[in-house]
Amino acid sequence: MGSPMLDDRKAAILRAVVEVYIDTAQPVGSSHVARLESVDVSSATVRNEMAALEREGFLVQPHTSAGRIPTDRGYRFFVDSLDGPVTLAPVQRHQVKEFFAHAHGELEQMLAETSRLLSSLTDHTAVVVAPQPEAATVRSVQLVGMGPTTILVVVVLSNGAIDKRTIELGADLDDERVAAADVLVNRVAIGFGLADAATLVVPPSGDPGVDDLAAAVLLALSVTSQNDPDHIFVGGAARTAAAFDAVQTVREVLDILEQQLVVVTLLRDVLDRGLSVAIGSETGLEPLAECSLVVSPYEIGGEPAGTVGILGPTRMNYPQALAAVAAVSQRLGRRLSEG
User: Cα separation of 152 and 143, whole Å?
Assistant: First the structure.
């Protein structure tokens, strides 16, 4: 999305207004801007240029005789004119590095903790979309007898996910035959995706009961792949309450965050439009008209896997938000690629 052209003076004044408003949450007056080192013109000139920026839709004056605040168009220009890649402060970079150096456990736990990390870095609500199961391959399968006719199937995927499924058998199988089926399934399934499981053929073992169990396991894994929705992990949802003055806005934003499909679709739509930041009305959702969304995909083994993002007010610190989302998405993808 290209930004409209502004001459250097207008651009400097607009950037100054955005930065001051992000920092203070108060309408910005021309005299304040004129005192800034980045704006080397008189207060009268600043006042005239701010009036022009208001006419062009970059600023708005919320009250008569008050200063001005950025519009969505003003924020868009500010974001698009940021110079080069942004990086986190050294302390925060160390925090991210240490977190992923010690991140262990099941995928779901890691993603939930990652969302809380990102929320703490930005002071906004963070969202992490889990990798889709069909994008991963089987690393190992374990069959555990839970009773005379009940088998627990535990599959470890290349993205770190652990999938569990219970199978009910029509007849008893002793531990030795369950172990034989375990060997058969691992022999054919390792390295394949869950979506491929139903097409895999188990070589005959000479024991129909063992063969039937192995086939049932592969079928169960394929059903898991088809039925599992995208999982999202939301960290710092309570921070939404502190971000907005209107109670109704808080309720509407929280309601959106509870709708998993809506959130996943929103993140994908933003990325599909080639954006890393969606501001206000750009989200396409009326309840998020006062919000901005900063998103970044993460990869596992060089392949797109999931998404990381933060949701906060349009008056967010965009350079810091972009840096945090980028750092976390890169580290998460690297960590999951390592297994």
Answer: 6
Residue 278 CA: distances (Å) to CA of 251, 267, 271, 312, 333: 20, 9, 9, 11, 23
- In this predicted model, what pLDDT tens digit does every residue of 212-240 receive, in sequence order? 899 988 888 877 554 455 588 899 888 88
Distance (Å, whole) CA 281 – CA 73: 10
pTM: 0.76
Do 175 and 39 lie in one domain? The reply is no
For the segment 132-147, what is each residue's pLDDT rounded down to a tens digit? Answer: 766 678 888 999 888 8
Residue 38 lies in a domain: yes
Q: Where are the beta strands (DSSP E) in the chain?
A: 59-60, 69-70, 125-129, 138-147, 150-157, 162-168, 232-235, 277-279, 291-300, 303-313
- 245 and 313 share a domain? yes
